[in-house]
Amino acid sequence: MENAPPPAEELRLIDRELVQLDARRARLLARRAWLLTALRPPGTAPAPVPARSPATAAETSPPSAQNVLLTLGGVLLTIAAVAFTLVSWGHMGIGGRALVLGAVTVTALGTPLLLLRRKLVSTAESVAALGLVLTVLDAYALRRAALPGTDAVAFTAVAAGVLAAVWAAYGRAVGRLRLPLPAAVVAGQLPLPLWALSTGGGAEVTAWAALATAGTDVVIALAARREAVRALAVTGAVTTGGWSLLTGLWLSLSAGSPAASAEPALLLLTAAALALVAAWRAPAAAAVTATVGGLAAVAAAGGVLRTTVPASWTVPAYLLCAAVLLTAVRAPLPRGVLTGLAVSSGLVHLASALWAAPVALLALTGPAAALDDVWGGPPVDDVALPEGAVTAPVVLAAVAAVLWAAPRLLPAVPLPRPAAECAALVLTWSATVAVPVALSLPLGPTLAVQLTVTAAALTLAARPSLAAAFLPTAEEAGPEPHPAGPVAGGRAPGEASGDAAGPVAGPVRPDGTTRGEPVAAPPGPPSRALDPARTLAGTALVCALGSATSAALLGLASRPTTFIALGVLVALCAAAATAARGPVRTAAACAAVVGASGLVAAAAAAAELPGHRIGLALLAVPAAVALLGAGLGRHPVALPLETTSAAAGLVAVALAVPHPPTLALVLALAGVVAAGTAVRAERRPLAGYVAAVLFVAATWVRLAASEVDVPEAYTLPVTVPALAVGLLRRRRDPSASSWVAYGPGLAATLVPSLLAAWGDTGWPRPLLLGLAALGVTLAGARLRLRAPLLLGGLTLALVALHELAPYVIQVVDALPRWLPPALAGLLLLAVGATYEQRLRDARRIRETLGRMR
């Protein structure tokens, strides 16, 4: 049995087919014209063919041209009617006016009925639009002629309501017209708000009127079948309902007593109920609509509760209402509605946490003020706290509790559990840290809270099994679905269809298993998914390091608190490094080294040592870590520990810079530590170079500090045995680099002598140094050793430059000013012309040096 489509749909299909037929006819006519031209004998003039191209046919198709003409005609008639009403109205009497407008209006509204019978739909639409405009002009003319003394706003409200009813009835009566019903929806937005404005009832009455209009729009949107009517109704509901919600929220926030907040709360609750009904009946936008409804409900209940508690508890009042709303997700509601309620509650929780976050941030960054006056007493914090800061820890703790409990107690909440657990941990830590600031506690209790929080966070980070206790078990999380999903019959892939007690008998496969036996899957790559327990442990570690830093800075307020804070932190970090595994152990061990460095510096400062002596004392940390590293060997934590201790060594060098003799001693001792580390095979390549550089630098600094005029007397006794040791090293290990064997010994003499030669005005020192550098260079070239060749050549070039510099300056002064630029230009031209040859020479030199040791 064949079902015929509705008349409007059938008409659209027929119009589409006609357009396609026109386009097809145009293409066939164009093809026919080309064939006639091809078959015509040469020299014969082609006969004109009245054919249209497809593009022309598409641009001037009959339906579109008809619509344009009808639209222009309707616009012109509308303009004429408006001009008649506004300009020519006064030239006729009351009877003529009524007769003309009434006749024209009735004619404009009745003509579409006749046009529709003749299937002239577009013409009927244009005439109907003219009739709708004429009804508006009728209303205007009625007030000007018969009711001139009425209130304009009240008359407009009544007229809009009457016009909306008339247009809706007309649209329902003439169902094939598309304009009257949307026009009725637009006109229906005005009556109630305008009536409320005309009565002077205030913002409350206007908000109720807008909300009633929004309710009417919701009903129309749910019942309408036409897309245009539904879209306009939804737009009107959003506009009027949104304005009503904003007005209700403003009235609720400005209410000073429970009685004053009752009416705004009722308004908001009504809007929330309307939004939830719309979300229930319209699943496509259920989540967004239910979110708005949930926020309105929280604003209503929180506005009443706010007036019954102190001002500092305003945010907790709204947060409590949001938490109660979250329990509604256990109700048997559609999924979109549940999602919207959960999102609205989550938004309130997020806003509350952001409101309380500055207090926790101030608790972490405030102790940095102690750096301005170390051991000068507790820092004075002049930062203004937000209003109600005393309740910030309560807010953070409440949000943390909801995040921890929601995934367990409310399975419908769309919240990933690992992320919720980590966020709950961070918020709990923030709430505890913010307690001293919120309560304005003195230094001692504040430091105790910081250290306690650090200890708890380190304990959680060091024991992943303890962190796992806060995560859901496999039973709570539910069974994990099969990656391929269920198959027909409700069984997962690979599941036997027989008795679960044993395999099902069947033919034997080539691998020896029967068809009913499960086949072991081949081993795949290891899973890269993060372990929830380790993720929570890493989050706890970050929290611990943050509070530890804050506690260390806070301890700088006085001498006793410094030693207490650093001592406790070192003990806690050492214990965590002993109990933990993986990255947590490494981070805790490095933090213990940093704390130990602070303890050593604090002890030296307490002994009233100057800054350069404090740097000397700091070298005890790298030395101790070097001994510890020798015991750890190739343990993964050894390298991070030594790197951290090297940073302490750099601080020691920086502190000793103002006092050169102490700087030389610090460099020498650091070289001893590096040399001791280089004894280990796994550290030899890097630590050996560092030790050599430190020893040579210590020698130079010592000579400069002692103002030695003849550095060779001190450097040669070092260079000779160093070269001898290098020669023995090369004999034992011919593959050893010349930089390791001879570089430190040669640099120990050549560099100080070069510095002395540049400041010497005599000729013996430069001459002797040049001869020595020449000999070293020739020896490096003869033995094919890179270090002697480069060090000797560089020294020789610098000595020659120093000796020739005065003469070069004299020659340059005697030359004309234009000659140096000209010579430079010629040099560039020569280099550019022989660029490829110079490039080959450079490569050859590099290859030659690369073959040297």
Please provide a written account of the structure.
By secondary structure, the chain is mostly helical. The chain has 34 helices and no strands. 74% of the residues lie in helices and 0% in strands. It starts with 6 loop residues before the first helix and ends with a helix. Helix 14 (335-365) runs antiparallel to helix 15 (392-409) and helix 30 (743-758) runs parallel beside helix 32 (786-814).
Secondary structure elements and their pairing?
Elements: H1 7-39, H2 54-59, H3 62-86, H4 94-117, H5 121-145, H6 152-173, H7 180-187, H8 191-199, H9 203-223, H10 227-254, H11 258-281, H12 286-306, H13 314-326, H14 335-365, H15 392-409, H16 417-439, H17 443-462, H18 464-468, H19 474-477, H20 532-555, H21 559-579, H22 583-606, H23 611-618, H24 620-632, H25 638-656, H26 660-678, H27 684-705, H28 712-732, H29 738-741, H30 743-758, H31 764-783, H32 786-814, H33 819-833, H34 835-851
Helix pairs in contact: 3-5, 4-5, 5-6, 6-7, 6-8, 7-10, 8-9, 9-10, 9-11, 10-11, 10-12, 11-12, 12-13, 12-14, 13-14, 13-15, 14-15, 14-16, 15-16, 16-17, 16-20, 17-20, 17-21, 20-21, 20-22, 21-22, 22-23, 22-25, 23-25, 23-26, 24-25, 24-26, 25-26, 26-27, 27-30, 28-30, 30-31, 30-32, 31-32
